[in-house]
Amino acid sequence: MAQGNELGEFLKSRRARLQPDEVGLRSYGGRRRVPGLRREELAQLAGVSVAYYVRLEQGNADNVSTEILDAISRALRLNGDEHAHLHRLAHPPRTGHREDPPRLRAPLQHLLDSITHAPAYVVGHYTNVVAWNRLTAEIFVDLAEVPPDERTWTHQIHLNGDYRSRLGDNWLPVACRNVAHLRLRAGQHPDDARLRTLIDDLLASGDDFRRLWEEHRVIELTHGEARIVHPEVGLLVLPFETLHLPGDPDLSRLMMYAAEPGSEYVDKLNRLAKTSTRRSSSDLARSA
């Protein structure tokens, strides 16, 4: 992961999105050399000296207090995810060095296998898919056909043309959400080598990911909606919820999708569930 000055770049990106009149400051007109607030204006709003704030933007957060970070957060009008991200950048957590692939407890796999009429999967800390059920493969991507080191949603969203076509017009919102979540994870797990490698690889892969990464958005993925154009049944709209796995430190969450009751998507899911069951039975018969 391009380390650089993550704290400074984040502060500058959040400062650039605010205008003086939005925060009650008088704008004296004329051409401003920087987008958004000047450093002096932000320091004034936060109640800190300009020199102190400049040191923070230079990445010098030694001994910065929680109170000062809170004041800067209020001045920048950060949301909850951004506020937590600012604190993590100033005081990086120690999360331990991970080398081995995460292990899945057998009951979790049994739970996934029991969910037959909706996609569900378990992901790790860098969007890596650790385990999945049949409908995940049927609706999104057949991850069994993907090399193990590319079994991340980041790879699939940004580098898999077939999956991008399934996302259709919804690709950009999904890509933005993915990159924002990945940046949040980078703040939570700054010493995760696999996470750093993933980000570096994607930064080198093309302009789309790099442009979104440089926006410094952060978001915790808790719930949302998937919109997929499936080649067999057409549009699927599936709300999803995330269930965190606090008892499994190497795993992040269980993702579960379901169609809205009474919607046309229920019937479509049922059709795909039958299709995936038939294909699975055929595969078993051929391997017998």
Automatic annotation (TrEMBL):
The lineage of its organism: Bacteria, Bacillati, Actinomycetota, Actinomycetes, Streptosporangiales. Residues 36-83 form the HTH cro/C1-type domain. GO terms for molecular function: DNA binding. It comes from the Bacteria. PANTHER family: BLL4672 PROTEIN, BLL4672 PROTEIN-RELATED. Gene3D superfamilies: 3.30.450.180, lambda repressor-like DNA-binding domains. SUPFAM superfamilies: lambda repressor-like DNA-binding domains (SSF47413). This is Helix-turn-helix transcriptional regulator. It holds the Pfam family HTH_31.
